[in-house]
Amino acid sequence: QKRRRGRLPPGPPRIPILGNLHQAPKDAPWRTFDQWIQKYGPLVSADFGGTTVILVGDFATARDLLGKRANIYSSRPRMVMAGELTCKGQHIMLRPFDETFLLHQRLEASVLSPRASACYTPVQDMESKVLLKNLLSTNEFPKQYERFAASIVYVLVYGFRIETGDEWQLLTAHEVLKNFTYAGQVGAWIVDALPVLNYLPGFLATWKKQAEQWYQIEANLHMVNMKEALERSSWNWSKDFKNAKQAEGLTDVDISWDLGILCDAGVETTNVTLQIFTLACLAYPEFIPKAQQELDSIVGYNRLPTFEDLEHLPYIQAVVEENFRWRHIAPAGIPHATTREDYYKGYWIPKGSTIMPVFYSMCKDEKLFDSPFEFRPERWTDKTQLSNFGYGRRVCPGRFIARNSVSIAIARLLWAFNIRQAKKGGEKVVVHEDIFTTGFVSAPKPVEVVFEPRSEQHKNVIEKEFGSVDKNVANMLDDIRKRQIAVGLHPRA
Ligand code: HEM
User: Fold this and answer.
1) Which residues partner with 54 through β-bridges?
2) Low-confidence ranges of the chain (pLDDT < 50)
3) Is there an atom of ligand 1 within 6 Å of 307 CB?
4) In this structure, are residues 369 and 322 in contact, taking their beta carbons and an 8 Å threshold?
C-alpha cells in the first residue's frame, strides 16, 4: 500500500488487501460506477487490489482534470496481458504518456488534422451512397454500417475498399478484436495483478504462449496490409507514414501497428454510433419528421444532401450532437492514468491512479440536461459540443473524420428512408440498459428494422447517385492528394 499523502475522494468502503476488488463489476461496469457516483459525488475513489481508481462523473470535473491538467492525466493504466504481451507495447491507445508516445502521435497528426480530414470527404460521399443503395435491398443494417465505416478507413490507410464486409482483412480484424477484448478483461489474467509473474519461465507462465499467438495474428495482418498498400499506385496513409520524418528511427513493424490501430479504431466506433442513431429512430421517432422537413426545404427531392449542405442543416447537426450525448459507445469511459500526484478541491489523487471519465453518468447529468434519457435534438440548438471524443493529450485523433462520416450518413439516411420497426404498427422501442451489450464498447442488441425509401422518387435518386459516383479508389486518392496540396498541406508521399 502507498503511504497516503492526503484525503482521497469519497467512495465505497474497502476491505483489507482487496479494497473494492470484490465489488469490481465484470459486465456493464458503468452501472456500478454510476451508483457510486450518485451516492458519493462526481469524484469517487475506489481501490481495485492496490490500484486507486478515480471515477469522474460530470463534465466540469472531467474538463478540469483530464483537460486542463492534461500534463498529469494523459497516461494509460498498465495492462500487462493486453498491452505488453498481446501487442508488445505497440498499440498507441495503450502506450504510456512518454516521448515515444508523442513521436507516434506526431507521426499520425498530419493525416488526422481538421484540414486533412476535410479533404477525405469524397470517400465518405461515395461510401455513404453505397450504404443507401445496399439498404434498398437489405435491412441488415449493422453489417452495412460496419462495411461503410470500414471501407472509409481501409481506403485511406491502405488504398482498398471493403466492398462486401466479408474480406479476409476485416474478418481477421474481428478475430483480433475478440482476442484483444479477452486479453484486456479485468480480473482474467493473474499477471495483470502481479506483473512480476512474467519472469516465470514459459512452461509455468502459460499465458505468454497464448499472448504470442495473438500477437502473431495481429502483427501479420498489419504487416500484410501495409506491404500491399506500399505497392499500390496511389497515395495512401501507409506511403505517407513510411516517408515521414518521424518514421526514420522506427521499424516497419512499428509503423504497420500505428496504421493498423488507426484502421481498427475507426470501424466499431463509427458502426456503433450509427446503430445508436437507428435505435433513437425507433425509440423517439418524433424527431424524424422535423429532420425530414428541414432536409426537404433545403435539399429538395431531386438530389442527396451533400457535405456543403450540412452547415445549412442545423437540425441535422443537432441530431448528430444528441446522438453522441444520448448513448456513448463506451459508457464506462476509456481509462487515463496519472503520471504524478495531484490535489483537486482538497482531495489527493495519487500518482499512477486509473482515471475513468464515466460517460454514462456525465451524459445523463440532470443539471445539464432535462429528461436526459430522452432523445431530443432541440437541446443542441445554439449550444457547443461536449467532449465525447475524450480529453487532453489522449483525445480521439480520428474525431474530425468520425464526425464527417457520421454526419453525412445520418443526413442521407434521414433524407432517404423511413426507418421503423419491422412490426407494422409496433410500439416504440423502450430503451433500458438490458437492450445494450455489456462490453467495453456497448452496442444496441439486434433489433429488426425496416429501411423503407420515402418515395419512388427518393429511391430513383439513390440508384442514380450510386450509379454515377466514381468508385475507383486510385482516382479518388490521387484527387485527395491534390486537394491537400490545394489547401496548403504537404502530403509526405
Ligand atoms: C464515431 C466514431 C468515434 C468515436 C465515438 C471515438 C471515440 C474515441 C474516444 C472516446 C477515445 C478515447 C479518448 C480518451 O482516452 O480520452 C478515442 C481514442 C482513439 N481514437 Fe477514436 N472515436 C471514433 C472514431 C475514430 C476514428 C475514425 C479513428 C481513426 C481514424 C479513431 C482513432 C482513435 C485512436 C488512435 C485513439 C487512441 C488515442 C490515444 O490513446 O492517444 N477514432 N476515440
Assistant:
1) 45, 355
2) none
3) no
4) no
State ipTM.
Answer: 0.99
Torsion of CA 65, 67, 70, 74, to 10 degrees: 90
Closest Cα to residue 43, out of 348, 449, 445, 282? 348
pLDDT in tens, 342-366: 999 999 999 999 999 999 999 999 9
Question: Atom 43 in ligand 1: which residue has the minimum CA distance?
Answer: 396
Tally of CB atoms within 10 A around 229 = 22
Residue ranges in 136-243 assigned as alpha helix (H): 141-158, 168-183, 190-193, 206-231, 237-242
C-alpha cell recorded at residue 420 = 421503423
Residue with cell 456513448: 328
Distance 265 CA to ligand 1 centre (A): 6
Among the listed residues 148, 138, 153, the one whose alpha carbon sits nearest the alpha carbon of residue 108: 153
Out of 268, 362, 389, mutate this one to test ligand 1's pocket (max ligand atoms within 8 Å of CB): namely 389
Cross-strand bridge partners of residue 337? 75, 354
Q: Is this structure's pTM higher than 0.80?
A: yes
Tell me how far the alpha carbon of residue 468 lies from the centroid of ligand 1, in angstroms: 33
**d(CA 394, ligand 1 centre) in Å:** 8
